[in-house]
């Protein structure tokens, strides 16, 4: 069988929209010809900031601007939507080990709704699940389908930029809660060299490195190579957390108007097919519901892409970003779900195996124009992007020997389980978009619109009979955003906006075998942002109202093979709330982030037993505070730093029927670090750091969609880093 080159579809997509580049190049040639004839003068070269991927411009903990809010670098206070950031300094101080750890201190973000589970980074924002539709990588869509979700290694991130609320006017397929733009580490112009070793809870051993800088002293080439290797157990028997990760990057910058960056990644992760504690329908136990002898999940994934930016003249800038991504997941799982009819101390199991492949190709072409019409300053952005997705899933179900609750860690032999069904889904998305940011004095008006065409073909095959069910679906939608900001003379910037979102959904409903309908949403938001003068401090507040139809959520459903936690669609949800956020990094060594969120997420249309109820596992109140302090350089404790944080999650309902409740909880995190360079110059660059998550080991039950889990327990990780 001849294998297809995985880069070939991306090359086809790259050729599909070359007219934009052709037109822009012609405009540049005309402008240069005019200059040579004594006409328009070309402006001096400007620095290409490489921000088309959403790179955060920050000072310590305080993000100031990024390209996430408008696809071009825009100050946060001029963005007419709620926007936050996790900066490089925050990542270094908190040393997060997962994506959920990384975003745990951002407003409106509900992590831990599924308790301890290292398999997926599942979370909600403003009451809506964004796991499949809200995770972007370097300003390009990162789709997911079924159990095929790209895993994130925080050590490979430069930061995270977060735009809350529907955002399809520029980004196309995205959800009601917003989008989380994961920003990859890029080459630096200054030399950077770092090696680090870590040891932590549950036999966690990790080594990592990060090297970057110019290739040589003469050529405009820069590189970065980031990697790690980890061997680790977890709090759950039979669930490892092993990983190999390597991310090369390369930048060519021949002049100040041109930049090409190539970003790559490969990782292999081994964990468990299930990580749940046994839940009897009323209470969640302290023992594993799976089978340690049949619980392997190995995922390999990779990506290769580029970001190209060329300033053509004083008016036009052309950008083209593209990426090919692929992953393969091979998983065996078992799940104990009920007492045996003969011996209640034995627990009956469902079991299964699946293998999935996901290949995605995304390309985004855009032309930016900056010009004036009278007193109005325009930043006009026009673009076209394409996404091609192919998802393939082989699935088989069977049985295993029952789990003995008297000895739950004992592995049970399992006969091989054959695949019984095959699903293949192809999806192609084309989007055209246009946005104008119009500035008049202190007033900024943003208006953008986008039209998407989506084609989805799904084939379901019964492998025993060979019967094939084919379904084709075509969707199209117009999305738009209008926003207004006004920067007052004392620095306070109020804003108001209306935005919509449209998201076709990959995958199928395992209960019906049908593909999912697109998810649609709209939002009204008002707020205020205040960048304190003469202080590196940003304060924000937002009020929002979001209506969503046909959203995807997890729910426990009785399939012929037994209960399963699968994706389902709901009719209509409405979320209303308030968000407050503060971030600061002061000259006295104190850095701080704080947030408070009130969210009321209601079911407006759906099953009769849920109408008017709160969405499960969405708390009305959430708050967080993290602070880090570095001792003065001239004091007796020079070199010492310490941090502490609290994450409060208020009470919520455990099911959409609102018959059970999750108690409120507060989890405490802490850190301490010491820079040995404060002792002696010979030790400069050597740093010891210890981070603790859930310091007091609180492991309360948490229920979502009628199924209950346990909070992840305490983890402590010590790291020794040397930089030179």
Quick structural gist:
The chain has 724 residues and is mainly β. Strand 36 (652-653) and strand 37 form a beta hairpin.
Sheet with the most strands? 22 strands, antiparallel, barrel
Tell me the structural class: mainly beta
Mean pLDDT, all residues: 90
CA-based shape: globular
3D architecture notes:
With 724 residues, the chain is mainly beta. The protein contains 5 helices and 42 strands. The strands form 8 sheets. The protein has a 22-stranded antiparallel β-barrel. A 5-stranded mixed sheet has the order 4-10-11-8-9. A 3-stranded antiparallel sheet has the order 1-2-3, with no helix packed on it. A hairpin with a 2-residue loop joins strand 15 (242-255) and strand 16. The longest helix is centred in the first third of the chain and has 19 residues, at 18-36. Mean pLDDT is 90; it is low at 1-50.
Task: Indicate the topology.
Elements: H1 8-16, H2 18-36, E1 57-59, E2 62-66, E3 74-75, E4 83-86, H3 88-94, H4 99-103, E5 109-110, E6 124-125, E7 128-129, E8 135-137, E9 140-141, E10 157-164, H5 168-171, E11 178-184, E12 192-200, E13 204-214, E14 221-231, E15 242-255, E16 258-272, E17 277-279, E18 284-288, E19 296-311, E20 316-339, E21 346-373, E22 376-398, E23 403-404, E24 421-440, E25 443-462, E26 468-486, E27 492-503, E28 519-531, E29 537-549, E30 552-559, E31 562-569, E32 572-585, E33 590-605, E34 621-630, E35 640-649, E36 652-653, E37 661-662, E38 665-675, E39 686-693, E40 701-704, E41 707-710, E42 715-723
Parallel strand pairs: 8-11
Antiparallel strand pairs: 1-2, 2-3, 4-10, 5-6, 6-7, 8-9, 10-11, 12-13, 12-42, 13-14, 14-15, 15-16, 16-19, 17-18, 19-20, 20-21, 21-22, 21-23, 22-24, 24-25, 25-26, 26-27, 27-28, 28-29, 29-32, 30-31, 32-33, 33-34, 34-35, 35-38, 36-37, 38-39, 39-42, 40-41
């Amino acid at each position: 069988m001849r294998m297809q080159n995985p880069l070939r579809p991306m090359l086809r997509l790259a050729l599909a929209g070359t007219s934009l580049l052709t037109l822009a190049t012609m405009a540049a040639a005309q402008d240069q010809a005019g200059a040579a004839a004594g006409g328009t003068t070309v402006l001096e070269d400007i620095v290409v900031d490489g921000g088309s991927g959403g790179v955060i411009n920050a000072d310590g903990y305080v993000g100031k601007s990024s390209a996430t809010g408008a696809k071009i670098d825009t100050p946060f206070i001029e963005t007419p939507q709620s926007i936050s950031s996790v900066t490089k300094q925050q990542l270094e101080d908190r040393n997060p080990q997962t994506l959920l750890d990384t975003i745990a201190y951002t407003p409106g973000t509900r992590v831990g709704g599924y308790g301890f589970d290292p398999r997926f980074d599942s979370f909600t924002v403003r009451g809506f699940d964004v796991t499949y539709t809200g995770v972007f990588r370097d300003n390009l869509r990162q789709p997911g389908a079924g159990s095929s979700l790209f895993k994130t290694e925080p050590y490979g991130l430069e930061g995270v930029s977060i735009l809350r609320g529907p955002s399809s006017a520029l980004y196309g397929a995205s959800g009601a809660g917003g989008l989380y733009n994961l920003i990859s580490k890029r080459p630096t112009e200054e030399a950077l060299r770092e090696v680090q070793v870590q040891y932590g809870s549950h036999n966690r051993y990790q080594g990592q490195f990060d090297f970057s800088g110019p290739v040589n002293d003469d050529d405009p080439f820069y590189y970065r190579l980031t990697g790690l290797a980890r061997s680790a157990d977890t709090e759950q028997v039979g669930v490892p957390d092993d990983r190999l990760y390597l991310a090369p990057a390369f930048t060519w910058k021949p002049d100040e108007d041109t930049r090409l960056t190539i970003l790559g990644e490969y990782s292999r992760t081994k964990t468990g097919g299930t990580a749940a504690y046994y839940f009897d329908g009323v209470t969640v136990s302290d023992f594993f519901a799976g089978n340690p002898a049949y619980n392997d999940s190995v995922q390999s994934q990779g990506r290769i892409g580029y970001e190209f930016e060329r300033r053509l003249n004083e008016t036009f800038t052309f950008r083209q970003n593209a990426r090919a991504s692929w992953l393969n997941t091979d998983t065996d799982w078992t799940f104990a779900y009920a007492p045996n009819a003969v011996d209640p101390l034995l627990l009956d199991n469902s079991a299964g195996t699946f293998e999935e492949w996901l290949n995605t190709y995304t390309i985004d072409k855009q032309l930016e124009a900056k010009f004036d019409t009278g007193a109005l300053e325009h930043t006009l952005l026009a673009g076209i992007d394409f996404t091609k997705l192919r998802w393939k899933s082989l699935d088989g179900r069977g049985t295993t020997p029952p789990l003995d609750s008297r000895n739950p860690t004992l592995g049970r032999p399992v006969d091989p389980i054959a695949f019984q069904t095959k699903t293949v889904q192809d999806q192609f998305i084309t989007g055209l978009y246009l946005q104008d940011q119009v500035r008049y004095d202190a007033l900024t008006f943003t208006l953008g619109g986008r039209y998407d065409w989506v084609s989805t073909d799904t084939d379901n095959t019964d492998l025993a009979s060979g019967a094939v069910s084919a379904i084709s679906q075509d969707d199209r939608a117009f999305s738009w955003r209008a926003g207004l900001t006004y920067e007052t003379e004392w620095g306070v910037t109020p804003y108001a906006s209306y935005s919509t979102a449209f998201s076709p959904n990959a995958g199928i409903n395992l209960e019906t075998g049908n593909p999912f309908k697109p998810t649609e949403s709209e939002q009204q938001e008002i707020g205020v942002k205040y960048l304190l003068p003469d202080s590196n401090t940003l304060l924000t507040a937002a009020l929002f109202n979001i209506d969503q139809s046909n959203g995807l959520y997890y729910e426990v459903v009785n399939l012929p093979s037994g209960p399963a936690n699968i994706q389902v669609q709901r009719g209509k949800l409405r979320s209303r709330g308030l968000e407050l956020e503060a971030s600061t990094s002061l000259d006295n060594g104190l850095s701080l982030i704080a947030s408070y969120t009130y969210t009321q997420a209601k079911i407006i249309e759906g099953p009769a037993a849920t109408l008017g109820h709160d969405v499960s596992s969405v708390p009305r109140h959430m708050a967080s505070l993290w602070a880090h302090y570095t001792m003065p350089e001239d004091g007796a404790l020079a070199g010492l730093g310490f941090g502490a944080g609290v994450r409060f999650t208020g009470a919520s309902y455990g099911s959409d029927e609102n018959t059970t409740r999750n108690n409120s909880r507060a989890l405490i995190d802490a850190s301490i670090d010491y820079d040995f360079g404060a002792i002696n110059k010979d030790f400069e660059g050597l740093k010891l750091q210890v981070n603790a998550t859930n310091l007091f080991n609180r492991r309360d039950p948490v229920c979502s969609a009628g199924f209950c889990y346990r909070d992840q327990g305490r983890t402590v990780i010590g790291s020794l880093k040397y930089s030179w």
